[in-house]
Amino acid sequence: TVDADHLEECTSRAQSAILKASLPPDLQQLINARLNTLLFSNCFVAVRSSATDEDSASHSFAGQFETYLFQKGQPAIMDAIKKCWASSFSMRVMQHRIDCGLPTNNIAMAVVVQVMVNSETSGVAFSRHPLKPVTEGSVLVEAVYGLGEGLVSGELEADSYEVSRSHYKVTRQIIEKTEKLVQNVNGGLKKVSVDVKDQKTPSLTDDQAQMIAKLLIDLEERNGKPQDFEWAFEDGQLYCLQARPIVTLPLSSFFVPDARGSKAILWDNSNIVESYSGVTAPLTFSFASKAYEQVYTLTLKSMGVPAEVIQDFQPFLSNMLGIIRGNVYYNLVNWYRLLTCLPIGDTSQFMETMMGVKQAMHPDIEAQLGAIKSTAPRYGCWTRLSVILSVLHRSMFVIAGYTLTILCLKN
Q1: d(CA 87, CA 243)
Q2: 3-state secondary structure of 316
Q3: Choosing a second label site near 106 at 20 to 30 A (CA), which of 76, 86, 255, 316?
Q4: Beta-sheet strands, E only, within 93-155
Q5: Is the C-alpha dihedral spanning 35, 39, 45, 50 positive or negative?
Q6: pLDDT (tens digit, 9 = 90+) per residue, 350-375?
Q7: What residues contact 348, with CB distance under 8 A and at least 6 apart?
Q8: Considering the entire predicted model, what is its pTM?
Q9: Which helix (H) or strand (E) holds 243?
Q10: In 269-402, at which residue ranges do the beta strands (DSSP E only) sit?
């Protein structure tokens, strides 16, 4: 375990021990066997760190672990592997772990050895625009000439392309690019000047930007989360170098179409206006939204609803409320959906009475509610009975408490 009070000393000792150690013979044999295959023979490789918690959905270590490009030969590759391992104990990585409340022991670091892509153009892309995730349905692509390491490290400025997620329309911002990173003949990278004729020329065509956007949207759909990925073009071929979840966006449930409202939504403030009257600040709304999510998650648990059902409904629990022009509203569609977890018949009238909803239902909403009821959780006989008994048990306590209160007031 790394001692926060002696961080520099601890990290230095850990890194030194790793770099001085020899790789186990069986591991050396395994690596050499792979390097001698046709795929890796006589070519440069990229040696990339891949810590087990490097790019989780909640924490990112982007740019903090080491990667070594254009490595060749067994001694250089073995040395780069050890340097990748050692980078997991660097001072800035350990400080980041401490700041995030992550463990500083039992750290696991995998190392990926890939055939090197000697790219003419490369960069990073985001399936959701990091600066405009809510208002803009666009993919952001940033591109430089040569290798993308200069962009990732912040050393080089990049061309920027926004690609519409719906129609793939490209909007680009082209800058003057005077330098790029390319392969050094002895291994590694070197910085060279960009040809004058190319300095103000787009580093990507619109077709290439669209190709990146389509691949990235597909990655998001496959992984179930907005993605940040590094890409490269070599001889016209697009390569995906690595991908990770974007951790600076709204809750993942925001991007679930049924939860965030790809269809008609019924907003109503008949009851909640009593708690949040007038204009509500975003900070207050974020607290209220989280509170409602936690309260109704616990309510479902207390009613005996199975944990796996509650997990499936988490996107809707996270979107019980909405804020429109500073006013807080109930998302009634998600409330109706939540009530289907309780197998006690039609609860919609009870909820409408409780919330004071009096308007007639719009046909689009009625159609949605029919679909919602048809996809309600399917319980087995014992689970259904258990939930019903839990609901009745809780209801009896509520009725008893209410009756006792009335009697006390009368006396």
Answers
A1: 20
A2: helix
A3: 76
A4: 109-115, 121-126, 138-145
A5: negative
A6: 555 555 555 555 555 556 555 566 66
A7: 336, 339, 369
A8: 0.57
A9: strand 237-245
A10: 321-324, 327-331
Residue 163 is encoded by which pair of tokens?
Answer: 């690609």
pLDDT at 349: 58
Closest CA to 67 of 17, 32, 123, 116: 116
Q: Give the range with max mean pLDDT: 194-198, 309-313, 378-382, 391-395.
A: 194-198
**241-255, 281-295, 304-318: range with lowest mean pLDDT:** 241-255
Longest CA–CA separation in the chain, Å: 94
- In which element (H, E) is residue 165 found? none
CA dihedral sign of residues 69, 73, 76, 77:
positive
Q: Which two tokens stand for residue 207?
A: 């077709």
The one-letter code for the residue type at 43 is: C
Average of pLDDT values for 381-392? 73
Beta pairing class for 121-126 and 170-173: unpaired
Q: What is the reported pLDDT for 170? A: 94
Token representation of residue 9: 């000393």
With contact defined as beta carbons under 8 Å apart, do 237 and 301 qualify?
no
Q: How far is CA 411 from CA 165, 406, 407, 408, in A?
A: 66, 9, 6, 5
- Cβ(226)–Cβ(220) under 8 Å? yes
Question: Above 80 in pLDDT, residue 100?
Answer: no
